[in-house]
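lol so apparently i was supposed to do this last week
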Amino acid sequence: MYTNTFERGMRAAVLAAGERIRELFLSKDLDIHEKSGPGDLVTRADFEATEIALDLLKSYFPEIPVIGEESGGKPTEDKCFYLDPLDGTLNFVHGYPNFAVSLGLWKGTKPLAGIVYNPISRSLYFANLDQGAFKNGSPIRCSSKASLESSLLATGWPYDLSMTEHNARRIKKLRNLCQDVRNLGSAALSLCYVAEGILDGYFEEGLDTWDLAGGAIIAQEAGAVVSDFEENIFDLKKGEIIAAGKGIHHMIAEVIRNDHS
Ligand code: 2AM
Ligand code: CA
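anyway here it is w/ adenosine-2'-monophosphate bound
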């Protein structure tokens, strides 16, 4: 049933963390604290999910370090996990059920496996390098749209407020070319929606490693082109991403690069 030795432990970690998040969400047990500003929050669920996932990862993979949004840690050149215990905390706080546990396994600059779990819909997305992407065990593929006109895109607002106008110009340009540009509030789920073809493309910048480490390989293994804004190979540390089917990826990148007017 498990395609490699990593899947079992990664799956156990995100499922257990996700089920605790689900309980706290349904019981509205939030305990909210502000981090860098009013839109950047952390809750009891972020901390409890971190502990649950870390304990399981340590028991399955004692030798692999974990870099976590709420637990810190330093990336190494060898294998390491990137854990976002709750991606979409602001959604969680508002009762908007679009958030996930995200876990990526990387070796230096190379993704090896990714897993994203939405504990409300109980959807589990998983990908191993060169082995395709799966949702609840069934293969998924990105969309094959060849024009922006029939495409639904998503993005997120950069957390650096000085970037707001710049991003608004970009969204305005793209909105005139495609059906709409959504903001789903979870980078990990946005990438999974690209992987299963719900979204035709997603772009965002100013993100952290743990926001993207799990979802990027899922989108890639589902056939999406995953790059930085210059269309170079996706760089986890750069924090920017365009993930889209190959028919529209370049068009999105061109608009993003020529957004100065
Ligand atoms: P989070 O909910 O785990 O914080 C929404 O556009 C995306 O940005 C989410 O994946 C969200 O993840 C992430 N995000 C929220 N605050 C951030 C910050 N200060 N820096 C970078 N990414 C952030
Ligand atoms: Ca988070």
